[in-house]
Amino acid sequence: MSFLIGLLTFVLVADCLLLVLLVLIQLPKKEAGAGIAFGGAAADALFGAGSGNVLTKATKYATIVFFVLLLLLGYLQSQVFHKPAKEFQRKVEEQGKSGGLIPPPAASPTPSTAGGISNAPAAPTLTLTNLPVPAATPAPAPTPQK
To answer: Is residue 54 part of a domain?
Structure first.
């Protein structure tokens, strides 16, 4: 799929360059403007005096190809880049149907080293008990003021 996206992207870039060249060599309506400045007379030399019709048709077709390629590439890329989200959503729905939560991964023991030296930070050890929390000593009662 990514090869197809790359190939279509290359064709899109080539079509963009073709569109730029077609627009630059077209004859302007009033014989002035960017068409004359960037080689409008060259179109007459290459394609003949009636080249306006050929260039206009080529520009229309290149524009249609441009928009079709844009829509196609947008659709293909949305399919490729949203695949992990769809897969994640499917797994969440499966867990919801089974009624259970995903258990946390089991703690793996820390690897022992030959000399007892390790760059890994030491994991804190927690001791959990069901003992009640000792009550704090009550604050002394305020003395009445006269």
So the answer is: yes
